[in-house]
Design goal:
The complex is a heterodimer. By secondary structure, chain A is α+β, with helices and mostly antiparallel strands. Chain A is about 45% helix and about 10% strand. Chain A contains 16 helices and twelve strands. The two termini of chain A are about 30 Å apart. Helix content of chain B is about 20%, strand content about 25%. Classes of the chains: A alpha+beta, B alpha+beta. At the A-B interface, loops of A face α2 of B.
């Protein structure tokens, strides 16, 4: 989809510590050695790019920022070349600060508890197997484009009660918002506008004919005073669920399969010991955490002894925190039976990912169903693996050769 | 000497990651929002000491205490 528009070019990075750029092709391809270099330099580094931006490089610095909503606001949550106007109900609660954050979040938590996810699991297993049926006979597949991408998009469409057949529409909007929108404000605004119009039409339909899905759930929700939510709040939360529900888990499943394609010993162990899959999923989440959030500095303070100034953004890299060797022994290795794993892949503090239970269930089911039917697979040497840019990291092309598939 | 352990969740720190419930379902319960609290009085039955420690060492918010009584 990179032909939708050509984002503005950034000069290549020559000094990572003082001039980092998370959209640089070198970072997109392999960020891990870059994070090590930044971490060795300082717990918090700064770049003048993106109108001024900090990045905490250690687990402790990330935790400090995530737990400090007084100095770090969530009103802007993506580091971009431009700072679009702040909209009050952009995507609550992820874009909300205290005190309005808590009630907005509590509204959305009950449909995403582990028990609620258990009920979704049979549908997820069916989706995974339908997808596998579509390519298994070919002996080769782009696992990102034909498997990992469609699992979360169909899950969230199912929960929202919108057609799973609109998946490609949603995927395109998210690409425009989270990747192209970093450097192209018009792209961002166009996607947000189209998404809002799409959901408004569904809201109108449900006014005539209520349904049993998350759209109706939000329309029927009441605040503490017994009042319905403002329309802009309902729309904002629907945008959040769609945006957050898709390429995050797409990326996590894709990175996991990428690891298993390159690591036959881990693959064989998970096939022999399927009970280890939930533990392995946690380690794959740690090692290949897809999501980097952002905050805006709104008050002068220090983080791990480093002063930070208002007006700058913060690239809140949970993935870099999860590679901090002070927190995780052998942080650069994937240890699929790692027992102590206090990873921050779903964030820390009040903005913990609402969908973490959904994402975990999807990852477990996606790996279990894949390994049952395709126990042996490897990267296709004739193909190229490509990675997404910016807010969410994961493989976008994942060419595999499938052996002994059933 | 018999070791007696009690688990405790700090409700102000818990953000509902639900790792404790996944790792030690006998020792923790979740409320309607998915936030955790200890099951019953939090006393760890014999044989579940390892699970109690595992839950503690996997809580991303460091919200779990394992207290020796």
């Amino acid at each position: 989809m990179s032909d939708v528009s050509q984002p503005a070019a950034h000069p290549p990075v020559t000094d990572w510590v003082n001039d980092f750029d998370h959209t640089d092709p070198q970072w997109t391809e392999d960020p891990f050695p870059i994070w090590d270099e930044l971490r060795a330099a300082s717990p918090v580094v700064h770049t003048d790019r993106f109108l001024g931006c900090y990045m905490p490089t250690t687990y402790d610095a990330v935790r400090e920022i995530a737990n400090d909503s007084e100095h770090f606001s969530s009103r802007r949550i993506i580091v971009r070349d431009v700072r679009p106007e702040i909209s009050r109900n952009a995507a609550p609660p992820i874009t909300s600060d205290p005190p309005v954050h808590k009630p907005a979040k509590q509204l959305l938590l009950p449909p995403f508890t582990p028990d609620a996810m258990k009920k979704l699991e049979p549908r997820m297993r069916a989706i995974c197997n339908e997808l596998i049926d579509g390519f298994i006979a070919d002996g080769r597949v782009d696992a990102a484009a034909r498997y990992s991408k469609y699992i979360p998009v169909q899950a969230i469409a199912h929960m929202l009660g919108i057609p799973e057949s609109d998946s490609d529409l949603f995927i395109n909007w998210i690409h425009m918002i989270l990747e192209l929108g970093i450097k192209d404000e018009n792209m961002l605004l166009q996607a947000v506008h189209e998404m809002s119009a799409y959901f408004s039409a569904h809201i109108e339909e449900r006014k005539k004919k209520p349904t049993d899905d998350l759209i109706s759930y939000l329309m029927n929700a009441r605040d503490k005073e017994g009042q319905p939510l403002e329309d802009s709040h309902v729309l904002g939360s629907l945008r959040l669920l769609l945006i957050a529900g898709i390429d995050t888990t797409w990326s996590a499943i894709g990175s996991s399969l990428w690891h298993l394609a390159r690591t036959p010993a881990d693959r064989e162990r998970l096939i022999a010991e399927p009970d280890l899959i939930p533990t392995a999923v946690e380690e794959l989440l740690r090692a290949y955490s897809p999501v980097t959030m952002a905050r805006e500095v709104v008050g002068e303070t220090t983080i791990s002894g480093c002063p930070v100034k208002p007006g700058n953004m913060v690239l809140l890299s949970f993935p870099a925190a999860n590679r901090d060797p002070k927190m995780f022994p052998d942080a650069d290795k994937v240890v699929i039976d790692r027992r102590e794993n206090r990873h921050a892949a779903f964030g820390l503090g009040i903005h913990r990912c609402i969908g973490s239970n959904l994402a975990r269930m999807e990852m477990q089911v996606a790996l279990e169903e894949w390994l049952k039917r395709i126990p042996d697979f490897r990267l296709d040497p004739a193909g190229t693996v490509t990675w997404s840019q910016g807010t969410v990291r994961g493989p976008r092309q994942l060419p595999f050769l499938l052996e002994k598939a059933m | 000497m018999t070791e007696r352990l009690r688990v405790r969740v700090d409700p102000d720190k818990c953000q509902g990651h639900a790792r404790c419930k996944a790792l030690a379902p006998e020792l923790f319960e979740l409320d309607e929002y998915g936030n955790a609290h200890e099951a019953g009085d939090g006393m760890v039955p014999p044989g579940l000491e390892d699970k109690a420690r595992l839950a503690k060492s996997n809580c991303p918010e460091i919200a779990i205490d394992v207290i020796e009584e």
